[in-house]
């Protein structure tokens, strides 16, 4: 019988970098403005369009 082959153990790839726009949360806040003078009355949260809510930089 032939000797058993050994496999090389490779190191796992590094974790993906967090998205700089949302700092890895997947959400960004925008100010909500109303009126003719465009007063800021609050903030609205939505998904990050840079990473589409994943929180990680997309692979190029």
Summarize the structure in words.
This protein has 60 residues and is an all-beta fold. 0% of the residues lie in helices and 28% in strands. It has no helices and 2 strands. A two-stranded antiparallel sheet has the order 1-2. A hairpin with a 4-residue loop joins β1 and β2.
Feature tags:
about 60 residues, mainly beta, two-stranded antiparallel sheet, 2 strands, about 0% helix
Topology of helices and strands:
Elements: E1 27-34, E2 39-47
Antiparallel strand pairs: 1-2
Distance between the termini: 47 Å
Q: Spatial order of the strands in the main sheet? A: 1-2
Main pleated sheet: 2 strands, antiparallel
Q: Assign an overall shape.
A: rod-shaped
The helix-strand sequence is: EE
Strand content: 25-35%
Radius of gyration: 23 Å
Structural class: mainly beta
How confident overall, as mean pLDDT? 87
Query: What portion of residues is helical?
Result: under 10%
The total of beta strands comes to: 2
The low-pLDDT segments are none
* SS summary, helix count: 0
